[in-house]
Amino acid sequence: MNRIPTPTPLTAEELVEMQKQHELERQERHLKYDNITVEAKLVYYKGTTAAVGTHSYLNKQFADIKKDWNSVIMIGTERQRCADDTVDNITGTYTLNLTDKMIKEYENNDKKLLII
pLDDT > 70: what percent of the chain? Predict the structure, then answer.
């Protein structure tokens, strides 16, 4: 006897409605974040990296794709960073001091999120 109930799959209409609801909640959440103060954050994340090399004996190229730790610097407001979905699997963030060069690059980028 199976005592664990099996969930009923959502219909296509229910799935679309749930996705709409998630998007509305995400937009409401983003409106609560600060969009004035510009910050620089060092973001560590786990993602995929690709490396290409040449086998020394066979003289053939090969590609290696693996999960690895990476880091980027994100310059922008809290709202811009949270709305961006470029970087997933964030494992840590550190606040950096903004330099004049960082601020100038941010302004040259039309005050949009800058990922270095």
Answer: 82
